[in-house]
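Most newcomers find our protein records easier to grasp once they have seen one. There is nothing in a record beyond a sequence line and a structure line. Getting from the letters to the tokens is the skill we practise here. An example says more than a description, so a record of this kind follows:
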Amino acid sequence: MKSLYCADCPRKYRPIPGDGPQPASILIVGERPGANEHKYGKVFIGKTGQELNETYLPLANLTRSRVRICNAVCCWADNNRTPTDKEIASCAAHHLPREIELTQPRVIILMGGSACKLVPSIKLDMMHGIPQYAELFDWFGPVVPMYHPALGLHESRWMTQLLEDWQSLGHHIREDYWPEPIDPPVTNYRILRGKEVNDIQLPPVIAIDTESHGTTPFSVQISTPSRSRSRRGE
């Protein structure tokens, strides 16, 4: 019988299993259990779970009873410590393949930076809310990186982005629309040369998007019907 604990687990606290139906079309992967989850033995039942159930899932036309939820790391840690990269890799490799096999998800949602580390190509700050095709152990399909709901509870300025991302997810789910995203080449704006700037032949209509951390600019994206470019600052 397979152990409940991964090889690197300190075995100080019990692992908390996933919750929800199996199979399920949506599998949500969070970070690790909090104090309430550890106390009652069920994932996402504290304030963060309430926020997920009552605010974000409905925006995507989902209910808690329709989705499967688990964590990248199954055991609580004192002071709700963020898991290390080693803990994430070891614990997830121990339990997630079986979780995915039984759930048979159409889509996997990775909530928060820790869960997104399961797919090294994902850069959460740039890809949040955007479906990415990725391999997760023996599974391949649409993966949606999301900010963790706890972020909105701790810093209200992030709630708008969370709301928009979950609304967008609802559109993809309703339409069962999971296009393979275009990955524009990224160049540091400080080393741009005139030729590359001139290579972008601007049509009558272009789309421009910007990203920032607070008041600090992070990147600008320019898209035309046939190509796109992203410019990132240092």
